[in-house]
Amino acid sequence: MSDFTTIETNLINEINAAADEPALEAVRVAALGKKGSISELLKTLGKMTPGERKEKGPQINGLRDRVTAAVAARRDVLEQAALATRLAAETVDVSLPVQEAPENRGRIHPISQVIDEISTVFGDMGFHIAEGPDIETDFYNFTALNFAVGHPAREMHDTFFMHPDANGERKLLRTHTSPVQIRTMLAQKPPIRIVVPGRTYRHDSDQTHTPMFHQVEGLVVDRTSHLGHMKWILEEFCKSFFEIDQIKMRFRPSFFPFTEPSAEVDIQCSRKGGEIRFGEGEDWLEILGCGMVHPNVLRNCGLDPDEFQGFAWGMGIDRIAMLKYGMSDLRPFFEADTRWLDHYGFRPLDLPTLIGGLSLT
Amino acid sequence: MKLTLSWLKDYLETDATLDGIVDRLTHIGLEVEDVEDKGKLLEPFTIAYVLDVKQHPNADRLHVCMVDTGSGDPVQVVCGAPNARTGMKAVFSPAGTYIPGKKITLGVGVIRGVESRGMLCSGMELEISDDHTGIIELPDDAPVGKSFAEWAGLNDPVIDINLTPNRPDCTSIYGIARDLAAAGLGRLKPLHIKSIAGEGKPPVNVTLEFAPEDARLCPAFALRLVSGVNNGPSPDWMQRRLKAIGLRPINLLVDITNYLTYDQGRPLHVFDLKKVKGALVVRRARDGEKLLALDGREYVFDHDAVVIADDNGIESIGGIMGGENSGCDETTTDVLIESALWDPINIAQTGRRTGIITDARYRFERGVDPAFCVPGLDMATRMVMEFGGGEPSEIIVAGKVPSVKKDIDYPWSEAKRLTGVDVPKDRASAILLGLGFKIEDHRDTAVIHVPTWRPDIEGKADIVEEIIRIVGINKVESKPWPRLDAGVPKPILTLLQRRTRLAKRSLAARGLMEAVTYSFISKNDALLFGGGATALELANPIAADMSDMRPSLLPGLLRAVEHNVVHGQPDVALFEVGQCFTGDEPEDQTIRAAGVRRRLAGARSFGRDWRNGSEPVDAFDAKADVFALMTELNVPVGGVQVVPGGPDWLHPGRSATLRFGPKTVIGWFGELHPAVLKKMDIKGPLVAFELTLDALPPPKVKPTKVKAKLTIPEFHPVVRDFAFVLGKAVAAADLVRAVRAADRQLITGVEVFDLYEGGHVGPEEKSVAVAVTLQPVERTLTDADIEALSQKIVAEVHEKTGATLRA
């Protein structure tokens, strides 16, 4: 009896003293291996008398079970310690930075964003997006739009010209997006509902004028649309685009060769502290020009002005971008300074929608 | 167009306030740009008498003045003006006055120890002149204590109208009064011009020397002599009005022509009879003829200009400006007054060419009322006689005043049709009558006679505009606009529009920033990138470096990169999606997408990074961008051929052309050619790509939105690695293609995962390692199957590329 107790005490001490996995394994093999001390004891059971076996059997088996359990317990402790050591060794400095994601760094230019916003609103109203060439002929840019040759109205457009060709005709850079009105009316029959965003060019340069800028033109031609409809469209557009509930517009009679009657539109705003806010205040801000399509323009496109009628308007994309998003100078729009783009640009996934809102912030 | 309130009231009988008038003007289409109300601004400034001027005790240049302001005790004022003296009359402002010329409000001050309770003012401080050398000195009879502005006649507000070019009738104050009267703001005072018969023909004859087809250049030229005129200064009231609208009074005769130019929109010209030699001839100029004009400059003409000449040569540029030599001065006693009609287009052209901007040109190029040609001359004659005396001759008219009778058939429903506003017929007719139209009414329609001063009115729409602008275009009520198709809106974008939008979003998502650069670039940059043709060169560029339409987006992007580098941003990744020009026809304009990356602005890693190191960009960053873009745009990239070598501006060994075939080039990518960068003076490393969106094939049209059926294989794929040694010049893509060809069914993937040169590999060779994915279809592959296939792969690759398995 005391033999077993001694064996057990010694083994347990050895097990608990094992400093690592191999040492523990050596103790286990020495006790429980094929030729281990406990295994040898177990072998003696076969030669015992039933009486002896009855007495010694449980003792030896109990010894084996306790030692086995002690090995398992020690192994657990050693594994925990080893894992703790490994984990401690594997620690990283989580304060190290990660790179900014490309989709966070990239930017959409405000002009593209605003064109997307405009297209979203007018698309919902059933307008298509029409486009035309930047290098235009005098016919499309002026003559077909009822600019009489030599009329001072042509002077209002500081035109860039190309060199005259062999026939003495000189092309020009379109001074407005209106030539696309003509191209569209010549190519398709009413009803016509288009908006035309695009680049336009005038020989002009200061804080609010650059020799290239962007306009968006709208054109409706059918048999019934009149100024009242245009006013509704423009009011709805401005509310939607500027993302405000109320807007007050003022129409002033004006002159454009290609519309009659013509008007300029101001929107009411306040300019407290240099910041422009719509829907409040006492100031008026000119935002667009518009009117009923001039009968001569309809005739120039083969449409009978007694049968067809419609309206057109035009506004500066850069200008409404500046008004909405607060840039004060137009020139940096075309400098591609990454600090400016980073600040005023939009994230690639800032997709304007009507269900989620045009701007997400 | 400027006018003063009192001048307007010569013709408009009204109780309206200045604000009321200004507001109404804007609402009827005569947009008021500015109102200068000097009377209001200068209200606190009064006339004062300087009782005493003493030297300031503490300052050499200052005086201490005692000023009688006309009320209460004398006021002490410290004044620095050298002309301050006892006994003078001056303009005084008390403490608390806003001084417009200094943009400050005056306080009670102590200047060098002496109290000052007001100011004696200079012309500059009142913003009535540029004089700041001393204070204003008033004549002895100026009434002390009275308003200076009122006494000086400065209390007449000046209204500046931004006149649209279609309204020549409102280049006259009378015309503006007529518009306001029609708009219900008062009553238009009728103009009574009695014709003056005069005695005898003028001593100078006039002939119009034009070929029949040129008759329009000067349809009529009326002339009269007034002899025995005293050409002194014009009356004070006239001078005040002229000054108020920014004109300098000269002498009576010149002032009258200027006055009537504004008063009636009728430009006139006066010749001094004694300076005219022989008869006057109106004709085209001869090439090289010269004139010293009234502005003191000499002009040289060609055949296109229309002039008035005598035996001395050109005396005046018809309808634009007179000549220095035949002008009227204080010695003039006999004056020839001209009232003529000129061709608006010719006036505009000559005006543009000479660069002369005058009030006469402004009116003639817009269109002057022909019917007022002779009455205007009579009106001028009467004014000359009234203020300068003299005896008039008869009027001679060369040519004939044309009739400009215009009738418009007008249905009364037209205003409603175009504006949606129901204007009652009696209201509409009242407006038209007020504007000088005559109406022959036929119940539903009318024949409307257009007044001679309205060349802009051509048809029904113009009549609608007249009615609606007076009713108020603001009265138009917004009306919901019906959709063409009820229901959910359909998509509106074309394929190219969708691709343009998507290209921007996907490039931005790859970390590039969108630039919008000018469509015109410098000639040198254009030439470097395949442009610079004459057809794409601007005749009148705004700057030398904006002369040519861009043949590619690259030069603009490179200049943008340069801008950023100069401003301390060396790692730049930019893109642009926009139009490029290969010719001046609409079909020569294409939409392209281009991207550029510089230095450490790579596609894999941006800037210096502790994880990824600091690898500079190479051609594969650009290749990654353009392939990602094509994939986003649904281009079948498997069919895109990557042909080594790109356009001239790229490194020939580090670039490629992208195409579907020899005639369907869609773009390129690579590293910029060092010689090009050197010519542009930009430092690399710089890589770029460009893709022509118009050239991309449209996606296949499918009958439904259903996607192809997906089959996931039953057996696991097996991956085997092979390392081949092959000639340096052999393309890795050819190796991959050869591997695939070994078994088109089982081999479903070939990935290049290693490239190794140097070391054990020979100098003319490289080692390329590929991972080949085998996808069993019918049964699991045995070792023997795999071994057989491996041998087939090695054999196939060797046969096609000469590569051997690396030992």
Mean pLDDT score of chain A: 92
- Helix-strand category of chain A: alpha+beta
The average pLDDT value of chain B, as a whole number, equals 94
- The CATH superfamily label of the largest domain in chain B reads Bira Bifunctional Protein, Domain 2
As a percent range, the share of strand residues of chain A is: 15-25%
Give the termini distance of chain B in whole angstroms. Answer: 93 Å
Main sheet specs of chain A: 8 strands, mixed
Helix residue percentage of chain B: 25-40%
What best-fitting shape of chain A do the alpha-carbon axes yield? rod-shaped
Please give the count of helices of chain B.
20
Question: Given this structure, which CATH class of the largest domain in chain A is correct?
Answer: Alpha Beta
Description:
The complex is a heterodimer of chains A (361) and B (807). Chain A has 361 residues and is α+β, with helices and mostly antiparallel strands. Chain A contains 13 helices and 11 strands. In chain A, the strands form 2 sheets. In chain A, strands 1, 5, 6, 7, 8, 9, 10 and 11 form an 8-stranded mixed beta sheet that branches. A 3-stranded antiparallel beta sheet of chain A has the order 2-4-3. In chain A, helix 1 (2-17) packs antiparallel against helix 2, helix 1 packs parallel to helix 4 and helix 2 runs antiparallel to helix 4 (50-90). The two termini of chain A are 84 Å apart. The model of chain A has no long low-confidence stretch (mean pLDDT 92). Chain B has 6 domains: 2-37 and 157-188, Phenylalanyl-tRNA Synthetase, Chain B, domain 1 (2-Layer Sandwich), CATH 3.30.56; 40-151, Beta Barrel (OB fold (Dihydrolipoamide Acetyltransferase, E2P)), CATH 2.40.50; 206-399, Phenylalanyl-tRNA Synthetase, Chain B, domain 3; 407-475, Phenylalanyl-tRNA Synthetase, Chain B, domain 1; 495-695, Bira Bifunctional Protein, Domain 2 (BirA Bifunctional Protein, domain 2); 718-805, Ferrodoxin-fold anticodon-binding domain (Alpha-Beta Plaits). Chain B is built from 20 helices and 42 strands. Chain B has a 7-stranded mixed beta sheet with strand order 30-33-34-38-37-36-35, sandwiched between helices. In chain B, helix 7 (252-264) packs across helix 10. Chain B is elongated, with a radius of gyration of 42 Å. The interface between A and B is large, with 94 and 100 residues.
